[in-house]
Predict the structure.
Amino acid sequence: MNSFKEYFDLRIFIAALALVGIGLLSIYSATFDINNSFPRQAIFAGVGFVAMIASFVIPLKTIQRLAGAFYVFIIAVLVFVLIVGATKKGAKSWFAVGTLGGQPSEFAKIATVMALAAWFSRPEVSIARLKDFLVGVGIFLLPMGLILAQPDLGTTIVFFGTLLPMLYWIGASNFILVSVLLPILVAAGALFGTGEFLVAVALSALVLYLLRSNNFAAAIAFGVTIAIGLSVQIVYDRLAPYQQRRIATFLDPNADPLGAGYNVLQSKIAIGSGGLFGKGYLHGTQTQLNYIPEQWTDFIFCVPGEEFGFLGGVLVLGLFALMLFSALRTAGQSRNRFGSILAVGIASVLAVHILINVGMAMAILPVIGIPLPFLSYGGSALVADMMMAGLLMNVYAHRKE
């Protein structure tokens, strides 16, 4: 029994299956009188379970060896989808075959995390060397650029949010971490207005000056930060109209309560009206009367929030916390550098998804089309999520090697 517990991460396994189960119950509640999403998601859950077990049993050294090939394959698929992919909600990010579709960007997150982990786990590679660092950042920037070209802003943000903690775990200096973070700060300031943009630029200049290792590096980092900030308007103009409306709604949710801000306001009502214990399964007012369009995708969190109340929301977030804690604990225990970096990368992907999606549902963050891991409807996302759970279990099993 002890040997089984040493090898098999029961916490990740139980948390993943429990979240999938809650997701299926929520999707059924939101769609049973509307469409056939539930049986399709149940099939995807079965496929995902097989993918999770496969990701668990494949030797970790084999996964490390194949990481580069998997990354190259995914990059080719991302290029291909830009050429022949189907357009959905303004983004050319899908392969469609009849009524079925697939979104390769979901698997690009896994491939990129694996590739970065494989690169920095090579004994001759050091993040302290500029060439090695730039290769590592390039591993992230290439799929990010292809995904932004679709355009899929939400997934691009997930990549940004994943890169920073991975660089920290690998051992990047404070200057490097700040150089990655400041462009995001300046870009956010540009969205709010000229005054906020100038304040962010001034703050960036001060921080880079104080943390500089040499003046040339600080000047390059500041130039990149300014360039990204100035490009915000170009990127904004490139976004689909519905994405532009989502950003405007975040800045002022009440500006268009019957249009772009409708989902956010209705989601807040649903979560707030659930109270402590909820209204009961299949008895949610906002859910059953379909006040929130397609809530089984990006706004799935409001279903357990309304029907099972505050306690239901805490249960979901508690299961996520258990998974993330287990992943980081495994990363800290792993003697395998590839496995350790991989676990941190997967935990970062999941954490960014959770923070953004729950923040969207509670009107804390803008609506950018990020699914809630294991719960939201979508075959590609669910299979990818369960693959990541399997990889975490794999790292746990080989953590002492």
